[in-house]
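Hi V.,

You were right to ask for the full record rather than a summary. Here it is.
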Amino acid sequence: MTDRISKERRSWNMSRIRGKNTKPEILLRSLLHRYGYRFRLHVPYLPGRPDIVLPKYKTVIFVHGCFWHRHEGCSKASIPKTRTEFWREKFHRTVERDNRKQKEIEEKGWRVIVVWECQLKSSPVEIMSDIENQLFL
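Predicted structure:
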């Protein structure tokens, strides 16, 4: 199956996908702030530059998009129908990198929380409850 849009247009579309300050990230930051939490963003001294860092709790939060980070069982984690082998390899590398960076952060004595885009959209209050439960373990 061939792509329905030109290679140039596909490249332009892909270049518009953000790595920082995504809508799910902004939503979670807004919730955290509303609940009274103070945090830092994209701290460079921690592996993987976590999306949100709560220094007081020695906790980092990664806000993962279901498509790019392969949320298991999520309908948004589909594989494109063109260049499937390329995409499988790309996704595999992303998941491996996520796991490696999470392990590195944990080895430094930090707690890691992963929030998935679809869960944040469907139940933000539950996500905040889960985060608070993990902060006070």
